[in-house]
Amino acid sequence: MKINKYMKESFARQFGMMTVFIIISFCVLTIGMMMYQNKVISTFEKQGNILENKEKMASDLYDGFNNAFSEARAHFAFGSSKDKTHVRNALSEKGEIKRGITKLKKAAETTDDTLFINEAEVFYSYYFDERLPKSLELFDKGNKQEVINISNNGGTAKINQFQSSLKQYKEDLEQKLDENHEQFSNRLFIGQIIFLGIFFLLIAIVFLSVRMMLRKIGGPLAKLTQAAGQIADGESIIFIDETNREDELGLLSTAFGKMSKSIQEKEQDLNAQNEELIAQQDELQAQQIELQAALNMMKSRELELERRNELVNGISNSLVKQEVLSSIVKTMCRLIEADKGLIVSLDRDKEYASIGISRAGVKQIIDHLHDGAIERLIETKESYIVRRESTAVEKGYHDTVSYTFDLYIPVISSSNNVEAVMIFTRYDKNFKNEEIMQFETLAKQVAISLEKIKLYELSEEDRILTQDILNTINEGIQLVDVDGSILQVNKKMCDLLDGKHMNLTSQPFDKWIVHLADTVEDKNQLIQFFNNVIFEGNEEDIEYTYHQTGINKRVIKVYVKPLYRGDIKTGIVIVHRDITWEYEVDKMKSEFVSTVSHELRTPLASVLGFTELMLNRELKPERQKKYLTTIYQEAKRLTSLINDFLDVQRMEAEKQAYDKKYEDIIPLIRNVIDIQQVQTSKHQINLISNTENTMILGDKHKITQVINNLLSNAMKYSPDGGDIGITVYEEGPVLKVDIRDEGLGIPADAIDKLFTKFYRVDNSDRRQIGGTGLGLVIVKEIMQAHDGEVTLTSELKKGSTFTISFPLVIGLAAKQNERLISENNGKVNVIIVEDDINLANLLTTELEESNFNVQVFSNGETALNAIKEEKPDAIVLDIMLQETGVTGWDIIKELKEIESLKSIPIFISSALDEKEKGLALGANDYLVKPYQPSKLSKLILQTLLKKDWNGQIMVPAKDENGAD
């Protein structure tokens, strides 16, 4: 009873009780659903883990057996009785397979699992214990036919049958996994359906409960609402509560009854006061109208002033013409209350800004600037209005006749010229005369701003032009004022000051002079020079040379010239000229003269001296032979020096010829070692070869010259003797030769200059050693001509290592070429499609020397028919053929569409540089004329060496990134 009364006294308690019931019901439902889902998920994961584990073990067995089969087949197909690599790989899988079968046997649960395991154990015993050992034994004895018979008599069939069983078992496991997942999804779906059903039932119960409570509340509230409405309508009523409720509605009804009675009692007093207030209100409304009119006028003037200020700020805060024009048209449109507007400059660029006008409309106006309405504005220089009927676009959704008013305003400069035109448009609202006068006043402000921008643009163009001219000068130029502050610099000067990322303009003297002095050798002398010419006015001492240190070692010569305007000195022009090259050339010339004089005079002195002795004295035969031997050796030395000079001259003139052939580099090195070892007793020369691929494509004599120069240097610059090591090895696609000595070594700062003509390390130890400084230059040029390079690593006092690198040729080129010829019945056919008969003859000679049979065609159609009939081993193809009809592009496209011909290597030989297109169409390589014919034969040979005549690709040499 008490609880019932407690609940009746408050709606909040009733709704609270209902809310608690809903929350408890929903929690119970949610917990039940979560417990059900957890149970389903646990069952699914357990079953899934078992199936996934078995599927993984089956996959491992599948991979193990397949690897064993593949390695065994590879041994029987490509191996030998000596090479057991594939056999060891196959037998290494045996243990893994056995362990896999054992694991699967432990995890077996079903009859299918047991049957498959039994089958796997039987096959495992058959293959590894019977068939494989027996086949290996027969293969090692050379009885390959018996191995084939075993395979044909059911061995291969058993393997294929077991592979099928193993594959089927895997697929069954995968199907069970899918079924398990589908069952899991179905059970989850059923649980969700049940959850939704109970949830909707709970909502229905709540809905019915709420509806019953609202009915209990709705009736009394309706009565209260009706009574309140009657009171609001001015009716005199007294509300009586007949519900006798104990809750909030009962209290509200009682209070409302008292309120209605109180209102009725005070109504008469309020009516009297209301009449008095009405009279006061009429008076206040009259005053409000007057104040509103004054306020509107004040706001209008305030808005006008704001827009004027905005216009002034917009045209004053920027010197970018386009920004100013955009600001003008936007602000004027707001100020004029125009619907759209445009301003166009009448200069050569015809820059404009618009708002509310399409591009086509703007273009139409710009195209007719000097005729029609604009021409009238330019001639009269007076604003005018054009009234016209609105277009369909301007009327929008209105279908009645309306008019549009266009206001044309000229922008007149101080020289009374029309600089720009402004056009503004209003819909159905004309412009008043006083408004036009205000707008013309604003146009004068616009004219002033445009003139200011015009002057700025002219000065900026002059400044940029001057700066561009200065930047093209190869000397660093500074313009400083009388106080030494920088007024202007060019890019070259920034480079000299190492200030590419610094703002050097306006830097005072004490800052830029310190920055410059930090880069030179004699800082104090440089600072003293600039103090003299800038501050002390010394116009006689106007040249100075300084040396920059650091990474960029340069020699700079400074020229200074004062700048006068009338009789007043306004600044100083300082020119910094980089004379490093001239300085180095002068230095090199001096060193060259000294070196050549020494190197030539020494053998000449010996020749002249011993010749004079032989002419003026009677000498014994043995003494004559000794003197003649000395004269011969010194003459050879002179010849070598002269040949070095001539070689360098020919290389620089690109007239050096090379007779490149496939050569083994090891015999070349041994010949040089034999010659050099005889000339020394202090050095031990050792040769180590770490590779069998020692073939190169090169000029035998020039490569010998390279090795001889490097080995001579190694001996010469190891005056105390020591070991000299020569190592031949492969590194990626490159064959390298290291020549290492234990001599003087080379300073780090001299390594970059070592391959420069006539350069020698400035060191007393080395000055005692003869040389012209040309040997390494010749080495570098020869290596570059052979598509190789020469590099150096050195440590002072510990020795140096010179490394020469050649493109690697796989195997012995001559033997490979003979193999290609023998495999093709003595013929390797090449068809050349070339309309230049001289070039065709040159290519034919080159290819025939490489043992190719060559046919030449100048007509594209004839060549295409011959290719289809002959099916050559390679095609050399020109693109642009003189005769009209079939071009090289057409031949490539047609050949690539024929299955039997599309694999023929095609080498494009053309003057057109369209390499990307040629390679995209399927060409093997693209040679741009002119090129060396030997390069073509090399490309064809290397391409054919990668391919056997059964269409299988051989393994080429690869670098560390896997590239051929």
The rounded Rg comes to 51 Å
Main sheet? 5 strands, antiparallel
Number of strands: 22
Number of domains: 5
Structural category: alpha+beta
Spatial sequence of strands, sheet with the most strands: 2-1-5-4-3
Low-confidence regions = 764-768, 811-816, 948-964
* Percent strand: 15-25%
Residues in helix, %: 55-70%
Number of helix segments?
A: 26
Q: What is the averaged pLDDT score?
A: 76
* Amino-to-carboxy terminus distance: 99 Å
What characteristic shape results from the CA principal axes? flat
Can you offer a commentary on this structure?
By secondary structure, the chain is of the alpha+beta class. It folds into five domains: about 5-215; about 320-460, GAF domain (Beta-Lactamase, 2-Layer Sandwich); about 475-580, Beta-Lactamase (2-Layer Sandwich), CATH 3.30.450; about 655-805, Heat Shock Protein 90 (2-Layer Sandwich); about 815-945, Response regulator (Rossmann fold, 3-Layer(aba) Sandwich), CATH 3.40.50. The strands form five sheets. Strands 2-1-5-4-3 form a five-stranded antiparallel beta sheet, with helices on both faces. A five-stranded antiparallel beta sheet has the order 7-6-10-9-8, sandwiched between helices. It starts with a helix and ends in a 19-residue tail after the last helix. Residues about 765-770, about 810-815 and about 950-964 have low confidence and may be disordered. It is an enzyme of class 2 (transferase). It is found in: Cell membrane. It is a multi-pass membrane protein.
